[in-house]
Amino acid sequence: MKLPSKLALAALLGLGAATASIPSASAAIVCNAEGQCWHVRRPYAYAPAYGVVVHPDNWRWGPGERFAWREHPGRGYWRNGVWIRF
Shortest CA distance to 36 belongs to which of 85, 78, 82? Predict the structure, then answer.
């Protein structure tokens, strides 16, 4: 095997190892009692006073339930239609 081939193989192996070490993206779904739901990229510690429920990222509401997506960047929660940051 010649030097350029060895370098190319080493680069591919290095790239594969780097890609394998990147954690997969996961998100949770958070909903409040008003039926507003949003995604979070990290697990946050929501105080019970916030009145929110954290669901896994594959959660879906049932046929008789009414929710609405209200996405917002950053940390916080929806309350009375207003995004409250923490």
Answer: 78
